[in-house]
Structures are given as structure tokens and as C-alpha cells.
Amino acid sequence: MRILLCALLGIILVSCGKQNDAVPYVPVNITIQRADPRYNSISSAGSVITLTGGIAGIVVYNTGSGIVAFDRCSSYQPEKACAVTVDEGLFTVTDPCSGSKFSLLDGSPVKAPATRSLRSYTVIITQFEIRIVNS
Fold first, then answer.
1. Torsions phi, psi of 98, nearest 5?
2. What is the pLDDT of residues 46-55, one digit of tens each?
3. For the whole prediction, is pTM greater than 0.85?
4. Cβ(101)–Cβ(111) under 8 Å?
């Protein structure tokens, strides 16, 4: 019995040793009315808006060939929930906690220490709405 308890305790300790470095999943279902003047800017290529939702907010970017959306929570040490900020005049966002940079085109890291992309969301565009939902 004692051996079984020791083995069980060992398994628990080993499984808790490595922390998952993925941005946690949270449900996202946001609808933007295209006629809403607060969101007019997202209709032009290169424009960026930020929204509440996700872990640390959501950044929405018009690539010129479509609209993409990412969680603002940095993929580097996501447990800190550090929100990336939009870089002026660039197609990147920066994690102010670590200095990591990410591309707004696809969310991929372009400057270390981050090695994982930002969590992306699916964007569904209709004539009247832009919906942002979990992939």
C-alpha cells in the first residue's frame, strides 16, 4: 500500500512539473456590425482595431486580402496574460513584458524570446457583419 501511495505521489509531482505554454482556450463569439461607425477603420487595408474578449483582448487586422484576428495575450509565458500592443507604422505587435514581436499577417513570432504564434480566431465576413469566433 505504501509503495502504491509513493508511486501515485511521484506521478502527480512529475505531471505538475512542466507548465503548458499555450494560451488558454476561452470561448470567443464577437459580432461587429459593419455599419457601426466605431469600426469603419477596419475596412481599409493595413488598419488595426482592438476589442475586448479572449484572454487579454483581441487585435483585428485588415491584411488587404482579408481580416485576421488574434488574442492579445502573448504566447510567451501566457500565464502572465501580457497584452501585446500595436506597433505604430509596422505590421507587428509587441509583448511589453518580454519584448517579443509578432506579425499581424499571421500571428507568428518575428522577434525572440517567443517561439509560438499568437492564438488566432476565425473571422467570418458577410455583407453586414464581421464575426470573430474560436477556430
1. -115, -15
2. 999 999 999 9
3. no
4. yes
